[in-house]
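User: Here's a chain of 191 residues. Predict its fold as tokens.
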Amino acid sequence: MILREGYKEMNGPLFLLRAIDFAARKHKDQRRKDEEASPYINHPVYVALLLAEVGKITDPEILAGAILHDTIEDTQTTPEELEAKFGPRVRKLVEEVSDDKSRTREVRKQLQIDHAQHLSPDAALIKLADKIANVVDITHSPPKNWPLKRKTEYLNWAEQVVSNCPKVNDALAEYFSAVLSEGRSVLRTEN
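Assistant: Prediction complete.
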């Protein structure tokens, strides 16, 4: 039997596989808002993949933070639980990029813009990859029933968040600019 608690190894593939396993279990009943209602786990895995492939990030704790980035915000996961399983650094990264769901959507969006400039460099990497993933999704598989105006507003908001983030990775920043440009081009054709 494989034990799923007390993750001690903080590096390498086993650490990342444990993060994927944990996130998949936490998000198991969640779906994305796209037409196909994709499994939610696809999103955090894609965020980590962007960090590794585009940003060339190899730090297992940053990659685990990306995989786990929505667990506090969107599941019943507590910060203490994350720390017990993945250590204080991963907990801090996830907390830095988590919204307070007790606030309205409008307040959360403004707080993301305002808070972005205060992110640690490692959390800024996760935030940037998350925004890339979301812009790609809005462009290619948007939430059903989102009108053009809401999609356009999302892209504009994502650009504000990213522009306030610390400049931490040129490749990710350039990729964000490219997907944002593509997204705006695609949305223009919807007019």
